[in-house]
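Q: I'm teaching a short session on how sequence maps to structure, and I want students to see two examples side by side rather than one. Could you give me a first protein with its sequence written out and its structure tokens following it? Keep the formatting plain so it prints cleanly on a handout.
A: Of course. Example one:
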Amino acid sequence: MRALRISLIVFGGLLVLALIADRIALFMAQGEVASQARTSLELSSEPDVSIRGFPFLTQVLGSHLDRVDLGLDGYEARVEDQTLTLEELDVRLDDVELGSGYSSAVAERAGGEGLISWEELTRAYGELLAVSGNGFGVEFGYAEGGRLLLTLQASVLGQSLDVGEVTGDIVLENGSIRLEVADEDIPDTGGPQVQETIRQQLDMEREIAGLPSGLSLESLEPTEDGLALTITGSGVNFTG
């Protein structure tokens, strides 16, 4: 009995040491992945990294991670030449193959969710419109039923004019987005010329670019907090 008790104590001690070693290795690996991701994605700070699955050391020995979660708060994408900050961009990477010393990591599948606040969307879109110099402006908000609320402005003879509010939708097709508003819903304030300018700007297609390499825009949905987006991809290389 004494020998068995000693064996159990030794085994328990070894198990505890193995668990400690596993957690230490996990902590160090998450720090290394965060550093590599910051470099490859050109982030201003390291993202939050969580490597899932247990035990961790067996995954490392097989150079394969079941799942890696990245939290990228304040990620900067682009709409044409204007920056567009995505808040709370969370990316999940599944079946990640590791290179030696974490020099590379390729996820077989990836997906994520993020948010563009209404204030940020209004700012970026406004700067795009300012470049055209046609005097058209729009402020974005949320309308009931999961639609956009657009507050339209225009410049007539050098004077700023509040055209009015309309509800609309945002349409994603082949990676490009555009605003969709029914013709009969556009206020007639300002006359036909103003209406035509509004129609041209609403119909213009724009592209959200600069997403993490290998990921593309899957959907956009208006919410009370802003424009929620989902992204997907495969064969995503998120370190380098």
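Q: Perfect. Now a second example for contrast.
A: Example two:
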Amino acid sequence: MAKGLPSLSLAEVVATSGLMSRTDRKYVLPLNDFLSVAEVLSPRCLEIDGQRVFGYSSTYFDTPDLAIYRAHRQDRRRRFKIRTRTYTDSADTYCELKVSGKRDETVKVRRPHPAEAADGLTAPALTFLDDALTAAYGRPAPRPLTPVLVTDYRRTTLVTADARITCDTSLVWRSGSRSLAAGGDLVLMEVKSASERNSVTEALAKLRIREQSVSKYCAGLVALGLASGGNRWRPALRRLGVA
């Protein structure tokens, strides 16, 4: 879906839009609508060794009573997500923490993590999480933390002058023996920018494409029947073809 767009390197993406602190806006749209958006925006596309679509696999961790999920369901101000993320084409793996900051800002920090331990949290990872959450919220990570959900998908990254756009397809949720795939002709698009308003969100508004409340982790738990009280994610799940 990114054929014909001018390319840029990973170093250029980091230099122009590293955005570990940012605002995120999410949209679920059919592939044809996404292609129309891309045509209007004329972005550049991340390319590494001639490749423009990359595989991701994320393992999310929570407490036995899903305290992290419940904080998101209740829209608490001090909420966060803990995951390992593997870039499946290179096997590079990170332990990542995403916290919600002021004015709907998302702040992400991460550290390298052993690829063979992607389904668990090592002692150094737990220390990293404790330190980062203490710095953000004044308390360490909850215990115990166990793997709850895995998300697999393919990602294309587009960049404009004032935003980075991640475009995810082939989304699959997995937990134990359960798995569920989103609709194959849909794109989960996230607009990541230093400010709430940017050329991308304005273009989407002109095309009457509305923002969608969706979290891969929370929506996946609801879709697989592993968590209750997820009505806020039902519209997104319907658009993703799984509700």
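Q: What should students look for in example two?
A: Point them to this: Residues 123-137 form the longest helix (15 residues). Also worth mentioning: The chain is about 25% helix and 35% strand.
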